[in-house]
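Entry for the shared binder. Reason: the reviewer on the internal report wants the predicted structure included alongside the sequence.
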Amino acid sequence: MKLKVGDKVKVRRWEDLEHEYPPYCLGGIKVTEAKLFLPEMRRFCGRFVTIDDVICPPGKTFYYIREDYGACEWVSEMFELDSKGKPICYSDVSDFIA
């Protein structure tokens, strides 16, 4: 499933990313061959975010989130995934916030 503008997703925990992917220079985590989870993205770990833009160059999909004002490029592997490896989309985040 490709995410679309307005979708709500939850950013994975830093520790989960660290466990699954190799560390990279400058304190980042190399999530894909082309994308790093940067230290400045860490503040969103475990938080719900809103997809604000989707860019699809050939063979790739990059997401921009509203909460960082489009400052970073995100990939689906950075969000919580279901058992099939697809991002989980939350329709109403208030259902999950105590």
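Summary line for the report: The helical segments are 14-20.
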